[in-house]
Every structure is written in C-alpha cells, then in structure tokens.
C-alpha cells in the first residue's frame, strides 16, 4: 500500500490530474483549476525499545488494525510541532503508559512500499508502572529467551529487536522494499 | 510558516473542518461530507556535506527562493520510493551535478516551525566534474577559512558545517524552534 493517490485539490476542491509539472521531474497531483501542486512525501514513524533494569524488553500487543493481536514496540507517526525524540517519548507514553529515558537512536529503517522511515530509540524504563493505552490490548516485559518472535507485528520491529539482541554497536540502517 | 492548512477534502473536494476526531487527541482536517481525515506530518529534507580530497567543502548558491543567492549544502525533500540515503545522493546530483560516496549520517536536525527534519550525510566527492543544476546559480569548493558564513541560506546548513569544522565525533542532533 503506497500512500493513497489524492483525488481532489486541497486548495479549491477540483479533481486533480497526476502529471509532471513544468519545473519538475516526477508526477504530482496538479490542480487543473488553480494550479496548486500537492506533494506527497515519506512520513516518519518514531518509537522506542524500552528496557527494564533486568534487561527485559517492553512490548505492546496491538488493539488496532493492521496486525491486531500481534506484538510491537511502541511507535507511531511523528506529529507536527514535535521533534523525532519527543515523538518517540509520546508514543511510548500513549501506547504503553511508560516513562522512559532515551539512550540514543538505534535504528533507522526505510520502508519503501508504504513511504515511511521508522526510527527507534533505545530507552531505559524509569519505572514499571506501565499500562496499555487505547491502541494496546496488553503491555508486558519479555525476557529475551521468551520473545514472541513469531507474533511480531512489523518487520522493522523484528529488525530492531534483532539488532539489540545481537549487541552490534552503532545505528542499524536498513531498507525494506 | 507552518505547513499550510488544508482547505478541501482530498477524497471528495468538500471544504474541510479542523477538529479533533473522536479517536484522536489533536486537530485534523476532517471532511464533513465523507468523513475522510487528512493528516499532516513532518517531512524529511535530505542532503550531503560533500568533501574533496584536499578537505574543501562543496556548496551551492541557490537559484530559487527562499534565500536565492545564498549558499547551501545540496539538499531537498525526500521523495516516495527512495531511501533517506538515495534521496541525499539524488539531491547532490540534481543541485550540484556531483557524484559522491556517503560516509555516514552526520546531522539530524528538527526544524519545528516548518515541520521538517533535516538529514545530512558526510560525503566524499568521487571527482571534481560538478556543475550547477537548475536550482543552483553556482557550485564551488571552499577552503574552511574562506567559507561564506555570513551568506549561508539555512541554519541547519550552518549547524552541519560547524559540526564538521569542530571535528566532534557522532551525529549532531538538534532542534530549531
Ligand atoms: Zn485547485
Ligand atoms: Zn470528503
């Protein structure tokens, strides 16, 4: 699912054409009435890999589609007016009710087919008073030898967990087609 | 200039309202006719800091607004279907006609007032056959003691150049309000 094609001009409501504008080199949604060009660009999904003092990792079981019932790291779309780091903290709070300290970016993964870039920060849980938010059925800590590898919601979550388990230094960068 | 508010529904063309949808916690453009919610999120600007073998840095003098006539690093909006790295290479080619090898991410800067995140990669020029693209008036190499610090186009370009000059290891992260 690439981002949906736009059908109407956001400025005047006229049905748009997809064509290459004169000063451009790729197709855009162009309004035949007012000339407005509406761009579509990749979006950032930001989240954390929260770790307890004993090394366990926090995962959320999704209450919403897609992938309802599967396990994920807390993450979601970055919002206007916040930094990448602030977005990661907000999503951790909203989805897991968890307070964390960010320890640094650990993964930046291009997800080409959906037009997204996923950012995960390694994070330290400040306490164990977490609780599922509206988008989670359940939030719990897993020992690394009991992680639900077969019930993970997203490939970027798997890659980020594998990067942590491997202990490889540096930021994981990867691209998923 | 925060990203412009949307006026019409991209699905059906009806004038939208800005309000908080039932399952949400912030204002969105909501269509009163078809119910479509149009999200607006931060966009990524991706570019490079290209270095010649002798240590000189490549800058482009902008041919377009904003900041026409001022100097910048090659950078622009990331496009659908490309990775962050591919976007940085493309912009370096389009704006400076330059071929580079990426040496790693060196700066990731939130620019809150425009809803952007700027990514710069340190890069090695593969040859000196660069030439201005349509968005540049001029492309040239600068020794570090002759950099046009008073004629830089953007604060993120300044921060990235300062980070390189300082020689500080690691990725610069910063937020501009
Ligand atoms: Zn229009
Ligand atoms: Zn509508």
From TrEMBL, chains A, B:
Name recorded for this polypeptide: NUDIX domain-containing protein
InterPro entries per record: Nudix_hydrolase, NUDIX_hydrolase-like_dom_sf, NUDIX_hydrolase_CS, NUDIX_hydrolase_dom, Nudix_N
Gene Ontology MF: a single term: hydrolase activity
Keywords associated with the record: Hydrolase, Magnesium
Residue ranges annotated for the Nudix hydrolase domain, each copy included: 41-165
Cofactor: Mg(2+)
Pfam families to which the protein is assigned, alphabetical: NUDIX, Zn_ribbon_Nudix
Family membership noted in the UniProt record: Belongs to the Nudix hydrolase family.
């Amino acid at each position: 699912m690439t981002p949906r094609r736009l059908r109407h001009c956001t400025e005047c409501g006229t049905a748009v054409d997809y064509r290459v504008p004169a000063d451009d080199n790729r197709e855009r949604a162009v309004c035949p009435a007012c000339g407005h060009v509406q761009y579509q660009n990749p979006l950032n999904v930001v989240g954390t890999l929260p770790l307890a003092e004993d090394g366990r990792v926090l995962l959320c079981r999704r209450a919403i589609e897609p992938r309802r019932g599967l396990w994920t790291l807390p993450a979601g779309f970055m919002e206007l007016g916040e930094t990448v780091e602030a977005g990661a903290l907000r999503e951790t709070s909203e989805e897991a009710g968890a307070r964390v300290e960010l320890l640094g970016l650990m993964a930046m993964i291009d997800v080409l087919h959906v037009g997204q870039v996923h950012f995960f920060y390694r994070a330290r849980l400040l306490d164990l008073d977490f609780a599922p938010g509206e988008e989670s059925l359940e939030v719990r800590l897993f020992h690394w030898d009991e992680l639900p590898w077969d019930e993970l919601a997203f490939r970027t979550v798997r890659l980020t967990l594998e990067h942590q388990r491997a202990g490889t230094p540096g930021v994981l960068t990867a691209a998923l087609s």
